[in-house]
Amino acid sequence: MKVALIQPNLDARGNQRQAYGSIERPPETGLAVLGSWANEFSKQDHETKVFDPNRSIEDITEEASQYDILGLTDWFSNHRNCVDIARAVKSHNSQTRIVLGGPNASMMPQLILKNHPYIDFVVQRDGEESLVGLIDGKNSEEIPNLWYRGIDGRPKFSFSQFTDLKKMSLWDFSRHENVEERLTKYLEAQNSGFDPWIVPPLALFSFRGCMKAIREGVCSYCTSSEEQGRALPPEKLWQQIRHLNQTHGAEIFYMADDIFPVTSRKIKQIAEARPNDVRARIRAYGYLPDMAEMNQSELKEMAQDLERIGIFNLFFGSEHYDPIVLSGMNKRGISVEETARIIQTIYDVGGVKTTIAYLLGLPKESRETLETNLRSLEKLMEVDGCVERLYISVGMPLRGTPWFNDLERDQDVKTEYHQQTGKDLAIDDSPDYGLLSRLSLRHRSSVSPKEINEYLSRMINVSKQKMPEYRIGGFMLDIGE
Fold it and tell me: 290, 210 in Cβ contact below 8 A?
């Protein structure tokens, strides 16, 4: 059994800046985890290869068609490349079973199977046991988290099952093609001791699921929130980091958890479990409303624990500082003053700097709310030395989110979308998100694309006074007219 895995590069239409000095993408952790899990738990002999996404699509499809299973990681930003590769591979070899997984595929599995007959399966959320089931030749209905076609040709779902993270084996990038070449710039930047934002770090995870979604419900613009939490034991996390130290010399990491400091207790457990010989500098995601509920003593204690873990930056998705806009997105916010208190404290006590993220163009946006965000950023930039990175994006109503569903129910939006694209929004699995954002502005806000672009530019200029331009990134940095 031969298994090929790939996370294709961004579609040509991608309008994204990662806020790193290099656009080189490091080896994909998710595919490393899948390969390691399959090696540990599959009962069948097989070999797994993770393809280098920087090869041409023609080269990838020609070789992938020689494999029994092809798995593709599907994001909204590379969906067209996933579909193109799947189509081409199937045309070369109709026996290759093609599987889509990843956050985008998880939001529209039935639509993908209906629109693309050359795609055999879609995995919804955790994919470890799904891949093992396919390799072992189980019947589709016996494989967890799997969408497939029934006898009548209609999409069917097997059953949900969450991966037991206590069983997680150590993973590395030994199955990745050209791994040494792909790690070259990362290791050069790391070992030089220069700015850690020169290249993207390797991803880790310690927790799956979003505590914000579990406690408060999913944000209306979010596709990745899972309302079921499960944690990797702290000892396993440090074993994994040590393994990457020893195998690849890797020391700078990005914790891909939706929220890393889920509780003070959990952070303390991770800090206390850290072995002395492990080398780690880590950036992670935080959640301001939870940290705002801590008194100053509790916040200082967490900052100390974050420093012991090796956290050098927390990414805070403030998104917006107007409470009316946030409430429409089912997102709690805090004041600029509270934000400043938190980022100043974690920097002064733990040396943890901040990435601040904004979303412009959400429903109920107005000239006044845009001005609120601009003024908030100016104030945060005055918190000396704390904010070292900005992520500013135009909000996109991604398929599967409550925001998208709201627009899809609007007949005027559907009509205008069809007039401009010739497509039916209800069945388009590769929507024109730039157009949808502009339609949302027209029907759900009182501002124009021109005004959004104006404030994007003004906020970027504010940030450029305090940080190098390569630390400023985001999605759809020009929404058009």
Answer: no
At which residue do the structure tokens 């958890």 appear? 257
User: What is the set of domains in the chain, with CATH numbers?
Assistant: 2-165 (3.40.50.280), 201-475 (3.80.30.20)
* Cα–Cα distance list, 322 to 93, 172, 285, 290, 354 (Å): 53, 43, 21, 18, 20
Phi-psi region of 442 (alpha: psi -120 to 50; beta: other; left: phi over 0): alpha
> What tens digit of pLDDT does each residue of 329-342 get?
999 999 999 999 99
Classify strands 155-157 and 146-149 as parallel, antiparallel or unpaired.
antiparallel
Using an 8 Å Cβ cutoff, are 365 and 446 in contact? yes
Query: What CA–CA distances, in Å, run from 62 to 5, 10, 86?
Result: 14, 20, 11
In 10-28, which positions are buried (b, 16+ CB within 10 angstroms) versus exposed (e)? bbeebbebbbbbeebbbbb
What is the rounded distance in angstroms from the CA atom of residue 104 to the CA atom of residue 180? 29
What DSSP element (H or E) covers 97? strand 97-101
Order across the sheet with 121-123: list the strands: 47-50, 2-6, 69-73, 97-101, 121-123, 146-149, 155-157
Contact of 387 with 313, CB cutoff 8 Å: no
pTM as predicted: 0.96
Radius of gyration of the chain (CA): 22
Q: What is the pLDDT of residue 143?
A: 98
Whether residue 388 has pLDDT greater than 80 = yes
Q: How many whole angstroms separate alpha carbon 398 and alpha carbon 221?
A: 7
* Amino acid symbol at 22: S
